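Retro notes (design track)

What went well: tokenization of the new backbones is finally stable.
What didn't: we kept losing track of which sequence belonged to which structure.
Fix going forward: every design gets posted as structure first, then sequence, in one message. First example under the new rule, 254 residues:
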């Protein structure tokens, strides 16, 4: 009987999850880079950690880190050599719960829910198959929760109707949402949510219902700095796939 695969600890989710060639007519072939493979490459190449130190952070064996880095380098090389699109998705991982996990310096925080200050709320969670969906900009569904006197009194799954990341803040506002729980999210979306007056708890993983219960209990762990570093990018931002074919950014596919 095969031994079950152990989830790898990931300290941060990528802000941008799709990359592609600038030139050519497309469509392009696609190479998938798992999130845990990207994390191993990030820690060893950008942070300069040894494979042993990276393995300790991710909670795996050094040989696993070596294999993940090899997988990541192969995916990146195929994209550069063959002119393919790169998508960061999948893998076997769990998001680090941050300071207090004892493994890394992630700046996770715990939500401080005040029932007196917010007795009634409309909470939205990026949703897929019962889980908190990890890329706000690609969300096809939200699960909406009506909270009264600090308790969930109703919930329903709502389709976004294929709206892109630029319209999702307005979509939530139109549904009366004042609080959002999600995974990865870009800087532009964060700004739009702030302008709409929607509180954000990003970098959350696991079952959606449990995340809302944790928020109301004041125990929700979230990552306040989950954000894309590109000025134009959202999680999943991909200018060449807009309905109009371009958003005007000359360097979106870097």
């Amino acid at each position: 009987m095969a031994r079950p695969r152990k989830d790898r600890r990931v300290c941060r989710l990528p802000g941008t999850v799709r990359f592609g060639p600038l030139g050519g007519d497309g469509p392009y072939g696609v190479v998938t880079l798992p999130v845990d493979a990207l994390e191993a490459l990030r820690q060893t190449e950008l942070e300069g950690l040894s494979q042993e130190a990276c393995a300790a952070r991710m909670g795996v064996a050094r040989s696993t880190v070596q294999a993940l880095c090899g997988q990541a380098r192969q995916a990146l090389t195929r994209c550069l050599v063959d002119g393919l699109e790169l998508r960061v998705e999948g893998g076997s991982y769990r998001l680090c719960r941050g300071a207090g996990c004892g493994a890394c310096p992630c700046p996770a925080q715990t939500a401080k829910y005040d029932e007196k200050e917010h007795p009634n709320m409309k909470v939205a969670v990026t949703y897929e198959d019962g889980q908190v969906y990890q890329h706000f900009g690609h969300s096809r569904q939200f699960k909406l929760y009506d909270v009264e006197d600090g308790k969930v009194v109703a919930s329903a799954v709502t389709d976004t109707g294929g709206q892109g990341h630029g319209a999702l803040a307005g979509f939530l506002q139109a549904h009366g949402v004042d609080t959002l729980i999600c995974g990865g999210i870009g800087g532009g979306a964060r700004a739009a949510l702030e302008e709409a007056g929607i509180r954000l708890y990003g970098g959350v993983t696991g079952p959606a219902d449990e995340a809302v219960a944790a928020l109301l209990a004041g125990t929700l762990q979230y990552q306040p700095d989950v954000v894309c570093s590109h000025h134009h990018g959202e999680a999943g931002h991909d200018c060449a796939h807009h309905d109009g074919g371009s958003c005007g950014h000359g360097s979106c596919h870097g």
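Added context from the reviewer: The CA atoms of residues 186 and 233 lie 6 Å apart.
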